[in-house]
Amino acid sequence: MVDSFFGYGSLVNAATHNYTNTRPATLRGWRRTWVQSSSRNIAFLSVKPDPLSQIAGLIADIGDVGWDILDAREAEYDRKILDAANFEGITLYQAKPTAMAPLGGGKPVLLSYLDCVVQGFNAVYGTDGVRDFFRTTTGWDTPILNDRRAPIYPRAQTLTSAETKLTDDHIAMIGATIVTAQ
User: Fold this and answer.
1) For the ranges 17-31, 103-117, 134-148, which has the lowest average pLDDT?
2) What is the distance between the alpha carbons of residues 167 and 115, in angstroms, rounded to a whole number?
3) Using CA atoms, how far apart are residues 168 and 165, in angstroms rounded to an integer?
4) Maximum C-alpha span of the chain
5) Which of 148, 57, 58, 59 is nearest to 109 (CA)?
6) What value does the mean pLDDT of the chain take?
7) Which of 156, 139, 16 is nearest to 73 (CA)?
8) What's the rounded mean pLDDT across residues 6-31?
9) What is the average per-residue pLDDT within 4-17?
10) How many Å apart are CA 174 and CA 182, to the nearest integer?
11) What DSSP state is assigned to residue 41?
12) How many CA atoms lie within 13 A of 8 on its CB side?
């Protein structure tokens, strides 16, 4: 029975969930990418197979929390059982094809979402892990909506000034565009 999942985005931030026995892991053969939502005016993270890539993340046990709560959180994703070395039987969430709009829709990444992800990677992997997250994620041509003052992301976290600077510095490093919330 599958009882663990691999998180590669906001699930790396253990402050956003109550799952147990969290542990860092690197999954070979996959790449993170920003995709456009077909139902909301946002972009969100997904993964796609890529034999030349590997992504860091966090494995956690489902424990007493159960799959129903995680499936509700990840409603725009299909739950897939991995068949990769050292990941046999561990679950991964990948965006449902019906949840993705065509590319080029200009739907933004929420900065509050990105902040949450960066905070998680920094806590688990340090600044090298944050740099690796940006390096191993595609779709940075998608604009980033600065919603820090009034976070839209439902699991937004409070960041220290150092964490905010870490996110901002990496956004500048990749040359992504930040737009202001109206």
Assistant:
1) 103-117
2) 6
3) 5
4) 47
5) 148
6) 93
7) 16
8) 95
9) 96
10) 24
11) S
12) 29
At residue 41, what is the residue type?
N
Structure tokens given for 156: 């937004």
Radius of gyration of the chain (CA): 15
Looking at the predicted structure, is the pLDDT value of residue 1 above 70? no
Question: pTM, whole model, 2 decimals?
Answer: 0.94
Structure tokens at 134: 């940006």
Query: What pLDDT, on the 0 to 100 scale, is given for residue 80?
Result: 94
Contact call for residues 7 and 14 (beta carbons, < 8 A): no
DSSP-derived secondary structure for 45-106: EEEEEEEEEEEEEEEEE-GGG-HHHHHHHTTTEEEEE--STT-TT-EEEEE-GGGBPPTT--
Q: Give me the residue label for tokens 């068949």.
A: 83
The tokens describing 173, both together, are 């490093």
